[in-house]
Amino acid sequence: MSSKRHLKEKRKREEKRKQRIRARIFGTKEKPRLCVFRSKKNLWVQVVDDEKGHTLISANSKEISLDKKLTKKEIAFEVGKLIAEKALGVGIKKIVFDRKGYRYHGRVKSLAKGAREGGLQF
User: Fold this and answer.
1) What SS3 class is residue 97?
2) pTM of the model
3) CATH no. of 26-118
């Protein structure tokens, strides 16, 4: 199997998994959706009201001040705490977690742990 074909099939599987998860997850005004996107270097998080189609708040790993050398998991934990702080400032306490097809381990799990520790419930 060529590498191009392998990557194409991998992307197709990822997209199907994302659609399957997204079909069951819906954010409302009372309980918005926490959406995660991760790249190789950075992590972005949004709190979305799907009824109106608006992003209420967002945070990313670029907002974290790097005074000392942190691992990607530690940065994800800090992003989770940051999004929780912003959400509580707006009055959001409960959310629906949308991992977007990513496995619940590593940076995604650290992000969720940080958000929970910051005060969000999901």
Assistant:
1) strand
2) 0.85
3) 3.30.420.100
